[in-house]
Write a structure and sequence with these properties.
Structural class: mainly beta
Oligomer: single chain
CATH topology: Neuraminidase
Strand order of the largest sheet: 3-26-25-24
Strand content: over 45%
Number of strands: 26
Distance between the termini: 25 Å
CATH class: Mainly Beta
Radius of gyration: 19 Å
Order of helices and strands: EEEEEEEEEEEEEEEEEEEEEEEEEE
CATH architecture: 6 Propeller
Shape: globular
Length: 306
């Protein structure tokens, strides 16, 4: 149900006999004018949160925190389409342009691929030097980030054609990463950057790849958003097909947009109310945003000026 200025979404839990009402964000000071909230729903697994989500042409892939040995496939309105049993705990999910689904497991130090029909699961990389906490995928390569037991953190670049696996770790002092949370890939012309969020280090790190080495080009630490950079808590990150970069800042309850140079585009900030704390992000082929919160809510958002 919706009104002209402020919409309300009402959800009935038939099993428990409860009615929970959630007030959606208005466009008065909270979001850019013209932004529309297309859907708001809870993850199907009751008390669980969305740990990682990825968008395909036909729906949303979702894994949970605490992680389960399953992967849900939902419509963009939250209805269950299918559930896939996985033989390991899933820490992150990614989908490439052709529809192949990639699953990372921090507990097993591996990355598997589900083929387009979602019936065949094949190992892609095993015995990784880090516990992969997040992955992103293109047609040619998979980028994984995570930490090792020695408290080192880094990036792995895996080529699907069987090429060499290369990785880079921060130094022993942990000056680059502390506990990376999510990763996205930005490309334009012949330039490619890896974007990594680290809530423990309070930063978003932009890296460019030259050969087998990653070079830091920019670190964004909440400038223009927080007076104290220690308040900045970036978690989810995604890049839409137009090259727009979005980051979920859990401390300000906002999804911010950054330029490819790592600067805040404050006119595009999405602020949330009603205790909605954005955690994981994905972009649909239509450039709509999917935002999963730390309390199990998911929002599908049409931005005013994608």
């Amino acid at each position: 149900m919706s009104g002209s200025d402020r919409s309300r979404v009402t959800q009935m839990d038939a099993l428990l006999g409860r009615i929970n009402t959630y007030a959606a964000e208005s466009d008065k000071g909270l979001v850019p004018r013209g932004t529309k909230f297309l859907a708001t729903f809870r993850v199907p697994q009751g008390h669980l949160k969305a740990r990682s989500l990825a968008s395909s042409k036909t729906g949303i892939f979702l894994c949970y925190d605490p992680c389960l040995m399953s992967l849900d496939f939902l419509s963009t309105t939250g209805s269950m389409i299918d559930r896939h049993s996985i033989n390991f705990e899933v820490s992150s999910v990614a989908v490439n342009e052709s529809g192949s689904v990639f699953l990372a497991s921090a507990s097993r130090k591996l990355i598997n691929i589900l083929m387009v029909d979602l019936c065949i699961q094949l190992p892609l990389a095993e015995n990784l030097p880090i516990l992969p906490s997040a992955i992103t995928a293109t047609e040619e390569t998979i980028i994984a980030i995570g930490s090792s037991k020695e408290s080192k953190a880094g990036i792995i670049n895996i080529r699907k054609d069987g090429g060499n696996v290369s990785w880079v770790f921060n130094d022993k002092m942990g000056t680059v990463f502390k506990k990376p949370a999510d990763v996205a890939l930005w490309s334009k012309s012949n330039q490619t950057m890896v974007i990594v969020t680290d809530p423990k280090a309070h930063r978003v790190v932009f890296l460019s790849k030259q050969g087998c080495t990653y070079h830091i080009t920019k670190i964004y630490s909440g400038e223009g958003l927080h007076q104290d950079t220690e308040q900045f808590c970036p978690y989810g990150v995604c890049v839409d097909k137009l090259g727009n970069i979005f980051v979920a800042d859990m401390s300000s309850q906002a999804v911010i947009q950054l330029s490819w140079k790592g600067n805040l585009m404050d006119d595009h900030t999405l602020m949330f109310d009603q205790g909605f704390i954005p955690k994981c992000l994905a972009s649909t082929p239509e450039c709509n945003l999917i935002v999963g919160s730390s309390d199990g809510m998911v929002k599908v958002i049409k931005r005013a000026n994608p």
